[in-house]
Amino acid sequence: MTRVRSLTLAAATAALIAGSAPAVAQTRLTIMVFAGMQNLPLFAAQSQGLFAKRGLEVDMKIAPNSDELRNGLAQGRFQVVHAASDNSVAMVEMAGADAKIVVGGDNGMNRLFVQPDIARLEDLRGRTVAVDAPNTAYAFQLYEILRLAGLEREKDYKVQVVGATMKRVDALMADKTLAATMLNPPFSLRAAKGGLKDMGEATAKIGPYQASAGFVLAKWARENSDTLVKYLSAYVEGVRWSSDPKNKAAAIKLVADKLKLPEEVAAAGYDLLMTGMPKDAALDMKGFENVLALRTRHTGKPTRPAADYVDLSYYQKAIAGM
Fold this sequence. Notes:
single chain; 322 residues; alpha/beta; D-Maltodextrin-Binding Protein, domain 2; 2 domains; 5-stranded mixed β-sheet; 48% helix; globular
């Protein structure tokens, strides 16, 4: 056997052995989110390999409504969820679950949309408004905006449960008896193009608000702390990639592809997200305290101190290690 042939055979044998070696094991996570622009950092973490390089395989599910999201987390079908922070509070106060908010997100970018015949908020008297769930998050935003306009729930207007934002915008476009709802991008942009009337941004009326947040079950976090820190590191890196001006065109194309949006809609949604998301998706405690104040006002039940619902130790470790 010649030396060249021997080297070739050795190289082929080495390649065969390498090819038959088991791949590096990855930790699988199933997460649930609501459809929307707020998922851009997660899209980035997947498309840029930020999860994969940390040994994570993340399967992202889209929530049809907040009940499924909360129930799935409580039952262990999802390990991490991203949704309005009040959903985590609801798990604690309504279901007795030990849920903890571990990372912030955006301020919701929510706007109140109404049917074209509504000239002012007072015109919603006697009408029906659409919500995801009647006792959480953006429903409380809607009730508060109407309260400030002098309208009381049930007495002055009715509430109909419709589901997630993507369902509510479809419902208002199809059913004129549904007079109002809260919408965020890209659905707010679609509503405006479809002829629904924009009555303004929620935070301009109710003050700072911590909308999107990532939350988990405390027990799962304790038992999987290393995995959670890796996940949060990838998420924050996704936030940084998304907000880097040099990546703007790529980020717009990414969200357009993922959400099946025209590029101009994706571009407008991107600009809104950049104004609504703080650096590194940090939790806005003042905004979160307002979330709790709204829950207390519209349920009549006091909440615990804001710190009781939050555990940022994993987030802090993630930031420190980046």
